[in-house]
Amino acid sequence: MFYTDNKLQFPVRVERPDPLFARALQQAIGGVEGEIRVAMQYFFQACGARGNPKFRDMLMNTAAEELGHIEMLATAVAMNLEGAPLSLREEVAADPVGGAVLGGMNLKNLLSAGLAAMPVDSDGVPFDMSHIYASGNIAADMTANVTAESTGRVLAVRLYNMTDDPGMKEMLSFLIARDTMHQNQWLAALQELGPATSVFPIPNSFPQDKEQQEFSYAYLGFQHDGSEPAPGRWSEGTSPDGKGDFSTRIMEPLGQKPVLSPAKPGGGAQVEQEQAQPPV
Amino acid sequence: MFYTDNKLQFPVRVERPDPLFARALQQAIGGVEGEIRVAMQYFFQACGARGNPKFRDMLMNTAAEELGHIEMLATAVAMNLEGAPLSLREEVAADPVGGAVLGGMNLKNLLSAGLAAMPVDSDGVPFDMSHIYASGNIAADMTANVTAESTGRVLAVRLYNMTDDPGMKEMLSFLIARDTMHQNQWLAALQELGPATSVFPIPNSFPQDKEQQEFSYAYLGFQHDGSEPAPGRWSEGTSPDGKGDFSTRIMEPLGQKPVLSPAKPGGGAQVEQEQAQPPV
Amino acid sequence: MFYTDNKLQFPVRVERPDPLFARALQQAIGGVEGEIRVAMQYFFQACGARGNPKFRDMLMNTAAEELGHIEMLATAVAMNLEGAPLSLREEVAADPVGGAVLGGMNLKNLLSAGLAAMPVDSDGVPFDMSHIYASGNIAADMTANVTAESTGRVLAVRLYNMTDDPGMKEMLSFLIARDTMHQNQWLAALQELGPATSVFPIPNSFPQDKEQQEFSYAYLGFQHDGSEPAPGRWSEGTSPDGKGDFSTRIMEPLGQKPVLSPAKPGGGAQVEQEQAQPPV
Amino acid sequence: MFYTDNKLQFPVRVERPDPLFARALQQAIGGVEGEIRVAMQYFFQACGARGNPKFRDMLMNTAAEELGHIEMLATAVAMNLEGAPLSLREEVAADPVGGAVLGGMNLKNLLSAGLAAMPVDSDGVPFDMSHIYASGNIAADMTANVTAESTGRVLAVRLYNMTDDPGMKEMLSFLIARDTMHQNQWLAALQELGPATSVFPIPNSFPQDKEQQEFSYAYLGFQHDGSEPAPGRWSEGTSPDGKGDFSTRIMEPLGQKPVLSPAKPGGGAQVEQEQAQPPV
Amino acid sequence: MFYTDNKLQFPVRVERPDPLFARALQQAIGGVEGEIRVAMQYFFQACGARGNPKFRDMLMNTAAEELGHIEMLATAVAMNLEGAPLSLREEVAADPVGGAVLGGMNLKNLLSAGLAAMPVDSDGVPFDMSHIYASGNIAADMTANVTAESTGRVLAVRLYNMTDDPGMKEMLSFLIARDTMHQNQWLAALQELGPATSVFPIPNSFPQDKEQQEFSYAYLGFQHDGSEPAPGRWSEGTSPDGKGDFSTRIMEPLGQKPVLSPAKPGGGAQVEQEQAQPPV
Amino acid sequence: MFYTDNKLQFPVRVERPDPLFARALQQAIGGVEGEIRVAMQYFFQACGARGNPKFRDMLMNTAAEELGHIEMLATAVAMNLEGAPLSLREEVAADPVGGAVLGGMNLKNLLSAGLAAMPVDSDGVPFDMSHIYASGNIAADMTANVTAESTGRVLAVRLYNMTDDPGMKEMLSFLIARDTMHQNQWLAALQELGPATSVFPIPNSFPQDKEQQEFSYAYLGFQHDGSEPAPGRWSEGTSPDGKGDFSTRIMEPLGQKPVLSPAKPGGGAQVEQEQAQPPV
């Protein structure tokens, strides 16, 4: 169950509203690296968490935090849109630099939302909930969260560098700090589950002797000239899960040339497809 | 540039075609955990890789591998669909267990594809390329790849447990082994970039003194009763990036109650919204 | 800013887990009539609310309520999935009625989420945030909310009638009651804005003398035989906004036959399209 | 069955083609507030209408009208695109204001459509038919239609204010008038179904004594400090459906802390999730 | 401008309602091979047609026909859903074959539409307007229409073979006949534009001497072993556009190994990516 | 199985990087006319090909070619983005023409990808795999491929005309040449299947005497005034499939006025819908 106090987690100030920066900020709301994604991802991971209940509680606690980040960013978008032109004529009267504003801003922020934020990315593409990764495997979920916060911090840094508005820089320096924490939080949660050698390969509940083990630690090569593929830490030494030694293997096809049965009569294929000889 | 030899990486055999299992296999083709995702993700990461060129080469090499996995799975889907009923009448004649086949299978595999595979998930939802994470930050990309292979192996294990067809189990035991390798491969690639303490927080190019550092390693609490949130490795000890010590902090709102300006006349709001007093 | 207490708003009990009902419940989570939609819709309407601040506060307050409804339903889905078969073989052993379970349940609930809820609808289609209507016009928003709660209550009633599990019926009777309240809440919010005659037509800030007023209250007929279209309250009497009297008018084309200019050379059309005579 | 006469319902004139305005107009074609939405929504509501057949006829009649509106707007988009630059070089030669044209226009209007309209919104996002609300409940459908025409008129007003082309203003003044009529038409259709007290809560076929009635007219509070939520018409007086009196209630969790069963062995979770103690 | 008469183009009768067949029919409404697609595709092609106006008129005339087909199919879906179970209990009481009905039918047809049709495909995926191909090149449009009617007839044939309801077979035999006509209609429209040798390659307005002509009629080989690719009509003889002779060429890379510049400082990459040596 | 050599099929050079042209090029990667589409379409058609195996081999061979085209274009996008501004301030300092760059470029190319390519179109909309047409009917597939290469060449020509960078023009002249070949290749593949008179109507496996043959070659008229629709090659002479003679027929409704049964009690409709008289 959730509660609110209608206040912002951290101050949101905009000294010089900039509709183009509003468009950029939309990526942090509705982009795949954005805050809707992490809020809903931690929420659904919490709802489906099986096993040690502390994970559920921790995930839901941080989901609450991320909801507040959406609120901050949506406020920032609306503030940056204040003063945006409503008409092409209004724009023409503006200075040359400003002349690109209506063309450069996201028109839906005006046309659909009346100068406010939307759950869309910087190109106006709506966020799609298929990006909520909640796998039922708590370790896999933690890796997804590290990814989310890594790409999220990359995005926040790009936004920080894009603007020179002091208020916006301050807000982003808070969000960047939180991304720092959250990257560490999910890495620490992986450690809570055990050392890498007991967590990986994920899921650790599948007996590895059922794998085709000659391929479990082989870096396979698919170079046209049959040469070895680019070597690195991934081609030599002990594997990070501690259960194998990396090797390199030039791959050759082990399987057949696939031949399907002729088309089944009545299945809407051409007659010639139905009359082909069945594979032997 | 790519080449093909029209053969399969590993044998694909189906002893007892099962249209319902064909539907399940579609998740491994067009699901967010599936093979189109990894093939295209490594491909686009390679195309945008800046810095040490060995990453580009390694990524493109493994993209080629994953293309072959799509081919294997698409063949497996088509084989599992052979013998599927084309009509409701045909179904009625079947045994009681089989009676659920046409209802349970993905109808588009028949109606749109003529008993063959499609780039959709197990519910017939087409794969959407927004799931290709290629961030321009090589470390963030590696975390995304660990996630992809972790959720991918979880999926492959579920499919392995779902079927008892020996051919399908054999094919999946190969794919599970490759997921084992690839989890390790991307973890190793992170190690190639340096120890966690130099890689994290991602991006490592942003000076942390510009962060609001009091929040960089604080596990914030958002519990309604003001209690501490669920403790764990994430709330005490040194952070995995080695740059801070975890602490817990009950969060209170530091920002204002957000008040936007009145609606701009001409902007399509109600009159009453335009006439509100501006915020002070 | 948001807080949580990790408890459920209302008890969620499942006496006889039913994976097919889990699939149906997904519609109430990630369907267009579902709880993600209302939670996020009220949230974004609040964030963009201009004018009287009580609307922002009220919207955010109810957004918090709806977040708790997602949590309840996600719990219900996970509980209904407990006991679901993991394999086709496991299913075969089940009773005839249960024989349809694995075919009828949403496979992604198993394959992607490990027997837990996802932000998708009953067919596994992910929720898409374009359904969040937050127009910047507070009256239009209230109509959108009446719609959301009307279709939401229709859905909840259908789910109530679909199950005979006492726990599920109890939970749904709570959600149906809340939908009753919320329909009334948004209708009342419209009344708060003034009587229909001052609220409509939305937006009330556009001077109606700029409309083509002969068409503002005319029910236009497009019947092939030139007859009057189906009459009703909409074709006679005073209009609900009190500003006109309904009439009926058989429509005839008032505009030209559209003729575009020839294709611009260099624009990728066929030569013949470029050489057409320009319209006179 | 449908017929056409290849003429426009109302004149479409463009005096000064403006590719940026063409992009804005796309929102009225393929945006969620646009004409494809209403045309298809009324069409599908008509096709599924059960009960009094006059609703079907009226809905299909107005669907025919809206198809003509798409045609008008698509013509307007094509006309506004005439004269758009085909090359970056062509643009450089243009005046400073025009200098932003190719950057500001929707490139797909050129690249995919050859300077013509597309079924996309102002950001080039294709219209998605999940926005067609046709619920099988005629009253819920009418509320959805009021919403569609309210947001539609808000959009048309914003477009009207954006342009100063006399032809475009004339066309939009017609469409705004039709939105006025249609808002009234659907409100009137609700009245045709009976007074609010018999129509609401929707659906009116569910016996309210099966609801958890103590929550049916309570405005619930979720404020973190336990204070009353923002009061209004929605918290006092008789409810608009006439069946209750509004009250305010500070909400507390009535349900349990959710605890799911341990992960099912074979389900792809971590071992630790399978070994958790089952909930008591 | 469009008109309607509320009658069906062709009789729609259902003797034995079948909810599973209703789901299959949805593919013909909202599938990519379905009737919404052709109706809207011809509509938008008409609206953007430049050049000889007879194409616009013909396209819009046939768009009107296709709208009537959606109406027929939506009626057929609703009729097939009559008698569908509303509850799991209702289902259990049914016969074994019927036991799979609620699991096999599209639940949204019940939950969202109240036993009526929706603009979705047979898996409940909403139709997405990006499938409307209207390129601004009339010849390319005609090829898209041949495709639409070819895949459309394949689908209709599969549906015909799936059912043994006489009414449904009769309706489908009409739709199949129309697909026959429309395939021929668009092929004839291509002929109207001239013989293949003047229409192709599309667009015929681009001077072929600007192509890299050594590749214009070469069938390129990408076989891993350097062998010739599978020969056929496409590798020998005069090309169908009459402008070249087919040949086969084993392809080798003509371009460089791509090397991008180091990451730009401030762009959110890792430090190591910024410090790489620039390409020479 | 696939192999790579990490080199480009054809040289990719950019003399004057242009971020706006990078955005345009995205359409050729992730647009519906782009290279992901053809690569994946030929790939899936190959995987599902039944009948003569030479089609499978030829399709997979050309799929390998198209993968290389994506690689070329992704490299071109990254090169055009080099030098793009990272900040609004950086932009202001630029020349007036350049002043529109950050507004005109696709912000996700910076914010999500760090100045590299993404699998999205020129408006940042991700490619959606529902555009992969692989019908199971080899002739229908070939028509889809002709369409893909026709719209693809139209797009490439528009891009060629948009830029004056010599390197980009050279690359596009290669891709245009390949589109010329591929249009011819698929037309030739249709010829390989037999003359049009044996291939059409597709599928040729459905006995035409089961069609409602009076409608199989009739060009139906839906003009409001009952006049003949626009005549052309499609209304007279022998049909391209050689099996009929075109005629024109003014269409009148042959079907009933559709009347559905009253709403089923318990189905969530209004009471009034349940109480309607059943149709006679």
TrEMBL record, chains A, B, C, D, E, F:
Cross-referenced Pfam families: Mn_catalase
Cofactor: how and how many bound: Binds 1 Ca(2+) ion per subunit. Binds 2 manganese ions per subunit.
Region spans: Disordered: 226-280
Residues annotated for Ca(2+) binding in this entry: 57
Keyword DNA repair: no
Single GO MF annotation: metal ion binding
Binding-site residues for Mn(2+) 1, renumbered to this chain: 35, 69, 149, 182
Coiled-coil annotated spans: none
Entries under SUPFAM superfamilies matching the protein: Ferritin-like
Family matches, as InterPro entries: Ferritin-like (IPR012347), Ferritin-like_SF (IPR009078), Mn_catalase (IPR007760), Mn_catalase_dom (IPR039377)
This protein's UniProt keywords: Calcium, Manganese, Metal-binding
Compositional bias annotation for Low complexity: 270-280
Cofactor(s) this protein cannot do without: Ca(2+); Mn(2+)
Binding site for Mn(2+) 2: 66
Family: Belongs to the manganese catalase family.
Name of the protein: Mn-containing catalase
Organism: Gellertiella hungarica
